[in-house]
Amino acid sequence: MVGNGVKLILCVALCLGVGVLGSLFSWGTNLHEWYAYLRKPSFNPPNWVFGPVWTLLYILMGVAAFLVWQKGIGRRDVRVALGLFALQLALNALWTPLFFGWHQIGAAFLEIVLLGLAILITLTAFHRVSLPAALCLVPYVGWVGFAAVLNGSLWYLNR
What is the pLDDT of residues 135-155, one digit of tens each? Predict the structure, then answer.
């Protein structure tokens, strides 16, 4: 049986790993040149904001998954909630290659809207298992909502 400390570390490491995987698509000169030349809305945050915000969000996501897992994988509601969590995490991992790797701003916008819906569904499932877990996802859904508006604006401005 896996102890709670190990479960917590695994959950946080998995989420941070998705962030690291995504960041591989945001390195390199071509990317910086491509992104630098995009027309941006006035509310576009400075580039340095994204790393710390996403790091915090991935940690909170990991804590949320741990709090649900801790309730017992034998429970159907826990398995469903963690399955939904895995789905939204996969969608999260897909956005960065779409946007930064392949420069598909419109496809990334559609994908981030799906991601936002998946997070809301996951948050609802987490709420049924653990209120603190659901609360950990609130900043994430807020940031992804903002990111969706930003992504949509970038798509519109750079058609």
Answer: 999 999 999 999 999 999 999
Dist CA 52 CA 2 (whole Å): 30
**4-157 domain in CATH 1.20.1260.100?**
yes
pLDDT in tens, 95-123: 999 998 899 999 999 999 999 999 999 99
Q: In this structure, are residues 59 and 15 in contact, taking their beta carbons and an 8 Å threshold?
A: yes
Are 82 and 65 a contacting pair, CB within 8 Å?
Answer: yes
Burial class (CB within 10 angstroms; exposed 0-12, middle 13-18, buried 19+) of 136: buried
Q: Retrieve residue 30's tokens.
A: 């071509």
**Domain coordinates in residue numbering, the chain:** 4-157
> Residue 148 and residue 154: Cα distance in Å, rounded?
10
